[in-house]
Amino acid sequence: MAITKADLERIAKYMLDGLSEDDACSLCELDTHELHELKELSGEVRLYLERKAIKFKQMHLNEIAKTKSEKNSMWLLEKLRPEEFGAKQKTTNPTTINIIRTMVNSIQNGEKYSTLTPRSRGNLAIESNEDDVSRIAVESVLN
User: Which of 22, 49, 58, 128 is 20 to 30 A distant from 7 in Cα terms?
Assistant: First the structure.
């Protein structure tokens, strides 16, 4: 079945309500693959649906902007420009992960439990709870 102009208008209405193209197709009982093919063949259809998705964002951004508040502004900047205003991702040091993996493996293998103790800046030592095992210094790039 071919997608008609009326079908596209119904899809657009659902998109303005916040649904994805695929969800809108499902509600209109249309094949999503057929819509994707139509978008590839017709730049006009693709632009029409892209504009509806942009219009949805614009409507909600306008609602957020109506209520002037620091919290709304911060939220909006974090969502729209996460690389600049988003929370900084916490990076995990691979050496730390390896130390933890070693400790877990030793516990799972029935070996004595070891603890990590700070030795000096940038270094950790694994201390075994057995007296006859010496300390093993592990280089770490902890900040």
Answer: 58
Residue that finishes a domain, picked among 85, 106, 130: 85
Amino acid at 92: T
Strand, coil or helix: 90: coil
With CA atoms as reference, report the closest residue to 12 among 44, 56, 62: 56
Give the tokens for residue 11.
């899809």
DSSP state of 75: H
Q: What residue numbers bound the domain in which 131 lies?
A: 94-139
The residue to which tokens 């057995």 are assigned: 130
Model pLDDT for residues 29-73, shown as the tens digit of each residue: 999 999 999 999 999 999 999 999 999 989 988 888 888 888 888
Q: Which residue in 17, 16, 15 sits closest to 25, CA to CA?
A: 15
Specify the length of the chain in residues. Answer: 143
3-state SS class at 51:
helix
Task: Collect contacts of 108-116 with beta carbons under 8 A, ≥24 apart.
Answer: none
pTM over 0.70: no
User: Cα separation of 70 and 30, whole Å?
Assistant: 43
